[in-house]
From TrEMBL:
<keyword id="KW-0812">Transmembrane</keyword>
<dbReference type="InterPro" id="IPR048524">
    <property type="entry name" value="Lamp2-like_TM"/>
</dbReference>
<dbReference type="GO" id="GO:0072594">
    <property type="term" value="P:establishment of protein localization to organelle"/>
</dbReference>
<feature type="domain" description="Lysosome-associated membrane glycoprotein 2-like transmembrane">
    <location>
        <begin position="337"/>
        <end position="368"/>
    </location>
</feature>
<comment type="similarity">
    <text>Belongs to the LAMP family.</text>
</comment>
<keyword id="KW-0472">Membrane</keyword>
<dbReference type="GO" id="GO:0031902">
    <property type="term" value="C:late endosome membrane"/>
</dbReference>
<feature type="disulfide bond">
    <location>
        <begin position="35"/>
        <end position="74"/>
    </location>
</feature>
<keyword id="KW-1003">Cell membrane</keyword>
<keyword id="KW-0732">Signal</keyword>
<dbReference type="InterPro" id="IPR018134">
    <property type="entry name" value="LAMP_CS"/>
</dbReference>
<dbReference type="InterPro" id="IPR002000">
    <property type="entry name" value="Lysosome-assoc_membr_glycop"/>
</dbReference>
<feature type="disulfide bond">
    <location>
        <begin position="291"/>
        <end position="328"/>
    </location>
</feature>
<keyword id="KW-0325">Glycoprotein</keyword>
<feature type="signal peptide">
    <location>
        <begin position="1"/>
        <end position="23"/>
    </location>
</feature>
<protein>
    <recommendedName>
        <fullName>Lysosome-associated membrane glycoprotein 1</fullName>
    </recommendedName>
</protein>
<dbReference type="Pfam" id="PF01299">
    <property type="entry name" value="Lamp2-like_luminal"/>
</dbReference>
Amino acid sequence: PTHHMQSKGVCVCVCVLTCCVQAVTFEVTENNSTCIKAELSASFLITYNTSTSTRTAQVPLPDSARVDTDRSTCGTNDSSPRLLVTFGPGHGLGLSFATNTSLYSVTNLTVQFNLSDSATFPEANSSGENVIFSMSVRAMFPSFFFCTKDRRSGISHSPAPAPAPSGTPESGFYSVKLKNNTVCLLAQMGLQFNISYLSKSHNEVVRDVVNLDPSLTNSSGSCDANRATLVLTQDQRTILNFTFSLNSTTRKYHLSGLALSANWSDMTTFFTASDFSLDYLRSTLGLSYMCNAEQTLVVDANFSLNTFKLQIQPFQVTTEQFATAEECQMDQDQMLIPIIVGAALAGLVLIVLIAYLIGRKRSQAGYQTI
Ligand SMILES: *[C@@H]1O[C@H](CO)[C@@H](O)[C@H](O)[C@H]1NC(C)=O
Ligand SMILES: *[C@@H]1O[C@H](CO)[C@@H](O)[C@H](O)[C@H]1NC(C)=O
Ligand SMILES: *[C@@H]1O[C@H](CO)[C@@H](O)[C@H](O)[C@H]1NC(C)=O
Ligand SMILES: *[C@@H]1O[C@H](CO)[C@@H](O)[C@H](O)[C@H]1NC(C)=O
Ligand SMILES: *[C@@H]1O[C@H](CO)[C@@H](O)[C@H](O)[C@H]1NC(C)=O
Ligand SMILES: *[C@@H]1O[C@H](CO)[C@@H](O)[C@H](O)[C@H]1NC(C)=O
Ligand SMILES: *[C@@H]1O[C@H](CO)[C@@H](O)[C@H](O)[C@H]1NC(C)=O
Ligand SMILES: *[C@@H]1O[C@H](CO)[C@@H](O)[C@H](O)[C@H]1NC(C)=O
Ligand SMILES: *[C@@H]1O[C@H](CO)[C@@H](O)[C@H](O)[C@H]1NC(C)=O
Ligand SMILES: *[C@@H]1O[C@H](CO)[C@@H](O)[C@H](O)[C@H]1NC(C)=O
Ligand SMILES: *[C@@H]1O[C@H](CO)[C@@H](O)[C@H](O)[C@H]1NC(C)=O
Ligand SMILES: *[C@@H]1O[C@H](CO)[C@@H](O)[C@H](O)[C@H]1NC(C)=O
């Protein structure tokens, strides 16, 4: 009917705020690998026409919002990564992302509302017509969330997980406490030893790949101003020490030492390997270091440590939770785009006001580009 095709005035205010409403987390994955992780708070103010007047509805992005997996994508050479979130009866929010080597940005914002949803838009003069519009935006994410390009130094990325008999190790959560029981170091990771030793049973040097079992592992250690140590002990037969060093001038920390002592039943002699001049897992004071991808930390010719889904914070632990993560280069290479809207982003308030008229027939009410 023709009256459905009348002009309507729509005013939309999109405000992506840090604290006005609670954040909802969305993840886009492809082949089991996360490429977009977004923590968003949003509230939409929509002014719409009723048959006699205009009204304004405030619509927060609800907890029930879900990623539309069919229309979200990690991107290809020709298309950019895109997150599409749907909520309620036919409402949606779409964000497209762009990246160059140093910055991530949102380049396109699409909002869609179903004005027939009378619970949200009472008395809307619409009858089934959707309001859809999109626009170019430029919202940059502060570069300190992303580590510098030198992150690759010293860390080699193992190729596709070799079919190790032991499989991917289980992730364990470890912490170190001060004498007064305050947590001072947090770590979550899966660990795999790649170790060569003289075997009793084979009477020759064997190379063994063995997972650390978190359920049999105890953690201890110490925390000083510029040095933190995490000691993982399994069965008294395996002792693994991590030493982290902080440069208080540059406010950067890194894994400077790794030491393993092992006395496994098939070993002819007590095994030790250590290096205290390493430069792995570099991050910034106040942040945690995170690397979901597998990393190989080479200690010497006989011992290297493979880490999986690692997150660690050896300094400035203020609560029993990790601070904002600085991501390793390999994860970034896999296009993980964290949009962390939290305290650190408190300065970012993106308010977009759009007022426009849809003076078009329903059949043409497609995407409006502003
Ligand atoms: C409501 O619709 C009328 C046309 O029916 C239009 O002239 C008016 O601008 C609209 N209201 C607003 C606030 O845009
Ligand atoms: C994703 O992981 C699941 C469970 O680990 C596995 O069954 C599935 O084959 C994986 N899919 C791809 C594409 O790797
Ligand atoms: C996912 O796996 C498919 C089939 O193996 C491949 O064509 C596609 O490029 C992969 N996507 C990503 C993002 O790796
Ligand atoms: C929309 O508003 C016009 C008056 O502006 C009215 O004639 C029409 O019936 C209304 N349509 C609906 C579906 O309420
Ligand atoms: C994507 O781009 C890379 C580098 O430019 C190229 O090696 C690859 O073949 C391209 N893939 C497709 C599917 O075009
Ligand atoms: C719009 O909302 C109405 C009323 O809730 C619903 O019947 C209709 O299916 C919705 N449209 C879409 C595209 O979801
Ligand atoms: C990345 O993009 C931003 C904004 O367009 C620009 O200022 C910056 O120089 C770019 N960086 C690189 C390495 O191209
Ligand atoms: C934004 O994305 C939508 C959906 O992919 C597309 O239709 C629209 O043309 C894009 N707008 C701009 C300004 O790039
Ligand atoms: C525990 O001791 C550390 C310094 O040794 C201090 O900073 C912290 O406030 C203490 N925590 C509690 C709960 O007393
Ligand atoms: C173990 O180390 C050896 C020698 O560096 C290497 O060839 C092999 O790929 C490693 N295996 C695993 C599962 O990391
Ligand atoms: C801290 O870093 C600076 C700059 O890289 C360096 O000159 C200084 O020696 C470092 N301090 C320590 C204690 O390592
Ligand atoms: C590991 O750390 C503990 C406690 O700091 C220390 O006693 C032990 O000697 C260290 N082991 C190695 C191999 O460095």
